[in-house]
Model the fold of this input.
Amino acid sequence: MMQRLWMLVGRGKTTTVNDAGPIQMVQVQLGANEVRDNTRRAAEYGFTSSPPAGSDAVLVFVGGDRSNGVIIATNHQASRLKNLQPGEVAIFDNQGQSVYLTRVGIVVNGAGLPLTVNSTPVVTVNAATKISLNTPELDVTGQIKAGGDITDNSASSGKSMAQMRSIYNGHGHPVPGVQAGSSTVNTNPPTQQE
Done:
């Protein structure tokens, strides 16, 4: 009986992960001479990961039976985010990417990875109809590219960028008192005010 109690909980390192089935199966190294193949790994609903080789693993063995274990927690020490404040939450990977819910806002970190990986953008947001950003200001440090038109939704305009470009391209400046020779004349403001 005492032996079974000692065998209820184990700690080890992950070596391989099979993530193809309905539950993840992991190979775990427990001590120098004990390797457990096809050990189930339980994860919280809505969260999933594939722990890198060498991650810490905590296992529970039903009835102390070492052939009937389940991994209840994993940790990859080298990539774990550190110094979170009480109540903060983060998801992260071993490349430095993260979504960090701080006490003062949300920080999404793409870790400076290349713009695309296998022709897929590093940060992708998919939505069926639209994405709303409810903020008084949007700061962008790089270029903004749009596959479609951009519309000014303010009550004063409601015009698209294409419409505004057309107005700009067609506007004129009256030039009073045109004179020949080398004299200079300043133009009036444009006739189109939009």
In short: Residues 161-170 form the longest helix (10 residues). The first strand starts at residue 9 and ends at 18.
